[in-house]
Amino acid sequence: MCDRFVTFLLIARWASAIMALLYHIRFLVFVDYGDVHDKTGLAKAFYFLTGLGHEAFAVFFVVDGILAGLVLRAHRSGFPAEGVVRGAVTRYAVALYRILLPALALGAACDVAGSSWFDATGLYTNFPAFSTLTLSHAALLGNALMLQPVLVPTFGSNGMLYLLSWLFWSFVLLVLLRISGIARPLLLTAIVVVLPWEFLAWAATWVAGVAVVALGTVSRWRPAPALGAALLVAALLLSRLAGADTGLVPQPVGTWLAGSTYLLVGLAFVVLAWSLYPDPGGTSHEGVRAAVLGMADSPSGQAAAFSFFGHFPVMMLLTGIGATLLDAPLMQQPTPFAGAAFASLAVLCLGITALVGRTIAPGVGSTVRRRPGMSV
């Protein structure tokens, strides 16, 4: 049971990273679906699959919430246990910074090289809606302090760093709520009133992942995996259909649904993850904790996480090289040649970011040691 759950989370992490990467590459290589001249069945399927970007973000947030829940819950009683709050914050922050700092360094190198040598097509200057290049010292410092995108823009072209900041502050606020005591209602009200809706939506998706650990630990009841899988497929279909047609349901619900369907995808994924969570009667909580956090800290788990957050500058640089040296046009009609270029770019980008991710030193998972006789 534990091995199945660990494999499930690792596959979900990789799927999120790959879909996010394909989602962003498609916007550079191909025109929007509305501008496609020949809308064949193959083209529809391609645009459907590569349009699952925000849905991939939601799945990644739920998986990270599960990891955070396991970091916080050191014992069966209390969630999180008071005595481990400080250590949990340190472990989680270290895990995120082990992604952030290399991402900032790699992004700076890629963006400086790309904007200096391969901007003949205007990749770094003529696509402000896609990526605004900000390489200032203020932006670098602000990103290092997890202040993007509210107080400073994301550093360089790496638009994914704002999601890393959302994860960090979601964790901090959850811990503050846990230790705030009688001031908890006041703090919760301030969070809802003051913080932007976008952050609250992603934080809620992440907290749903934390809830998987709470639900899976306190009760042996599980929804059927088939139900979770069916809900996830239905949520993905609804997400793509509602995103393509805001008139699918009456207004103003249609407009809200088009911009928030990733929340439904996240909740459906929560049901699936809950259905697969190891039975507390058959596997010790410490065993689950060690196995799952060990997966997150493994070379494969780190490669997936870094690819998710760090692919943007690498993608921009490789696209700039192709556009400049190989005369590969940007935002073109789908053709077999363009498809081959798309696939090559995706493989190269994934390979580079995964290689960097695999070299990151052991982090949060290494702090969990298996005890003699621990059941995994």
Give your account of this protein's structure.
This protein folds into 2 domains: 2-222 and 278-366, no CATH class; 224-276. It is built from 13 helices and no strands. The longest helix is centred in the first third of the chain and has 33 residues, at 85-117. The protein has helices at residues 2-29, 41-49, 53-72, 85-117, 137-144, 161-179, 184-194, 197-218, 225-244, 253-276, 285-297, 299-325, 336-358. Helix 3 packs across helix 8 (197-218), helix 4 (85-117) packs antiparallel against helix 6 (161-179) and helix 8 (197-218) packs parallel to helix 10. It has 376 residues and is mostly helical. The chain is globular and about 60 Å long.
**Radius of gyration computed on alpha carbons:** 21 Å
| Stretches with pLDDT under 50, minimum 5 residues | 75-81, 362-376
* Amount of helix: 55-70%
Distance between the termini: 9 Å
Quickly give the structural class: mainly alpha
| Shape designation | globular
Number of strands: 0
Helix-strand sequence? HHHHHHHHHHHHH
Q: How many helices in DSSP terms?
A: 13
Give the strand content. Answer: under 5%
Q: Could you give a short account of the major beta sheet?
A: none
Task: Output mean pLDDT.
Answer: 86
Q: Give the number of domains.
A: 2
